[in-house]
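Re: your question about Peptide MFS transporter

S., sorry for the slow reply, the queue was backed up all week. Below is exactly what I fed in.
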Amino acid sequence: MSQPETERTQRTFFGHPPVLANLFGVELWERFSFYGMQGILLIYLYYSADRGGLGIDEGTATSIVGAYGGLVYLSTILGAWLADRLFGAERTLFYSAIVVMAGHIALAVIPGLGGVAVGLVMIALGSGGVKANATSLVGTLYAADDDRRDGGFSLFYLGINLGALVGPLLTGLLQKNVGFHYGFGLAAVGMFLGIVQYGAGRRRLSAAAREVPNPLPAEEGRKIALIAGAVLVVVVALLVSGVLPASRFATAVAVVSAIAAIIYFAVILTSKLLTDVERKRVQAFIPLFIASAAFWSLYQQQFTVVTIYSDQRLDRTVFGWQMPVSFVQSINPVMIIVLSGVFAALWTKLGPRQPSTPVKFSLGLSVMGVAFLLFLTMAGGGPNSAPLLGLAGILLVFTIAELLLSPVGLSLSTKLAPDAFRTQMVALFFLSVALGTALSGVLSKFYSTDHETAYFGIIGAVALVLGGAVALGVRPIRRLMSGVH
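Result:
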């Protein structure tokens, strides 16, 4: 009897394999630290020195945030490669979490741009390893035909958003009352708790979590090390020389993400380790990858345009008290927590009758376009003119779009993955997020209160068109998926 079948007769975690609780916990604390820090990062960059910030202009600040967010997801490629070729998913996740904690400590204790550079690079690299491998490990808990799969990923997504809810609330309070660096320090504490929780339960994971699917020969390891060293030298030279200014960081990460995606698809599709069915399934992932990147280029503007909007346009006064800017970042996680259970129950109840993945992607992208068009109802006002309930309503639409695409995309990447590229297919999904997140930083530079009607209108309309294009391609995509729903 297979492991998933055996687990149905044992103690479960809300009807799912019990080890899901352990992965749920480590991701909760990693997201607490990640979103807690990100909730105050942008305003730290562009607030003036007398407000505790660095005084960088808004366009450059949004580029840095977009580039950092893109680098987080771009680093999932490295995290997945380390898991598949050197250490296995479980060990890679554990040591990556330690790197994340070290990055938050650097942000907390190193002043100025030096702390930003060291801290964000470490957090990005570590978070990439955590994200790719935690998701991959969740995928190993289910058989390919287990209808609980999407529901399990939705529960996992609940853990992500519990951390995302509490993180910005606590770091925001510390930032407002004590200072930015105390907020960054709290993020480090959160990641430490995540490491302790995961370390206490990591032995419960199966042997499959520790296996290396495609071990790297020693001679190839030396070549990779030389290439990595050369790339590092080039990147440092570009930054030190000023050839790549901070205002172009997001563009650079977007270009690198796009090139990496092309190379990655080519490597997987030309591999002799793939069967004909596996190759078709990877081909089916290409249009969904593009749709995912478009979705995230809108959704991730929560940390750029929506943050600026909340700081400069939103009426944040509640019963005479002005809430911190970062509190807005907790609205979406509250809605995710409420609705993720609803979506998980819906997909579980519908089982094989639920909409196919391409249909969910089409709906998610289209709903995201509607969310941007809803900003037009509040356009043209001055400071404190946008009602908090109005923005909360728009973020509710963000949430519905997210639940239609994000956990489903994570699940899809494990269902379509060839055996030899199990973790790296998850990394490809995150690479679409990297591209979209970097593009969110690029797009955000065009936002201003003087042109917000055109900004929200054009971007929303383009998203609707792209969502319609995915809908038209549902049948050929499903044929390539070869039986995967």
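Residues 1-9 have pLDDT under 50 and may be disordered. The chain is about 75% helix and 0% strand.

Happy to talk it through on Thursday.
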